[in-house]
Write a structure and sequence with these properties.
Blueprint (H helix, E strand, L loop, with lengths): L4 H6 L7 E4 L3 E5 L7 E7 L14 H17 L7 E4 L15 E5 L9
Antiparallel strand pairs: 1-2, 2-3, 3-5, 4-5
The structure holds guanosine-5'-monophosphate and zinc ion.
Guanosine-5'-monophosphate (5GP) binds next to strand 2.
Length: 114
């Protein structure tokens, strides 16, 4: 049995509020939202981070970003703007080692991030 938290969200052994699902992707609400809209968009297949994507994953990567854009539209933050973030590794603060894109919006954000 996988020890990966997000794999368990994919297989429903851990509960989450799912906002979108298709054959390759899943989107759900972040358990500790940092903005009025804070969703996580993940591949269903276990990939640790962007660093572990292969050339053959280019379509998957594009698809995950398209899902972010679609959800931003559905959440009504397309006009106001939003941020898509992926953390990779220790210095970036990646805490769950399953590739995920944070979709954050609904408030103003500062740059650069901390
Ligand atoms: P990271 O720090 O790896 O970029 O982001 C991991 C994210 O996963 C964090 O924003 C954290 O709040 C979220 N998270 C951690 N555990 C859970 C959980 O059990 N369920 C949900 N929905 N989100 C989680
Ligand atoms: Zn996983």
């Amino acid at each position: 049995m996988s020890a990966c938290l997000f794999c368990h969200i994919v297989d429903r052994t851990i509960q989450s509020t799912i906002m979108y699902e298709d054959e390759h992707a899943l989107a759900f609400q972040d358990i500790h939202p940092q903005a009025p809209v804070h969703l996580l968009v993940i591949p269903k297949r276990h990939v640790q981070s962007v660093q572990d994507l292969e050339t053959t994953d280019a379509v998957l990567l594009g698809h995950l970003l398209r899902v972010c854009v679609k959800l931003a539209k559905e959440k009504g933050i397309s006009e106001s703007g939003y941020r898509i973030v992926t953390n990779s590794g220790f210095h970036a603060g990646q805490t769950v080692l399953h590739l995920h894109f944070h979709l954050l919006g609904g408030r103003s954000m500062i740059w650069p991030p901390g």
